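Can't paste images in this forum, so I'm doing it all in text. The chain is below; anyone willing to post the predicted structure tokens underneath?
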Amino acid sequence: MNVLFVCVGNQGRSVMAERLFRQAVGTAHAARSAGSVPGFATHVSVLEALEEVDVDASDHVPAKLDHERIEWADVIVATCDDACPVVPGKRYVSWQIEDPAGRPLTEVREIRDEIASRVDELVADLG
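Text version of the structure:
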């Protein structure tokens, strides 16, 4: 199953979701992330929060949500509101997670943990 995690900037929520999903499933499923208006780099606090749970996202480069990525995906997870178009034939999951941008590390940890919990639910659902 190919899972695409989407947010606006592809600098925080979708990055955490993608990397935590990869950690949870290994090679059982594939994951990518993208943003409707991608920024230039992953938020430093997001990198730090992920490092605390042994997830390295230092190589992440924000990517644009485009037709190719949408076509690749079997499941599209919107981690925020209004980040992705609805395409018939795709399964959509909406999480509406708080944006970690500009938040202190303590709050980013809470966001990471919420995403990790939702990733666990998604993994169980996918089988």
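The chain has four helices and four strands. The radius of gyration is 13 Å.
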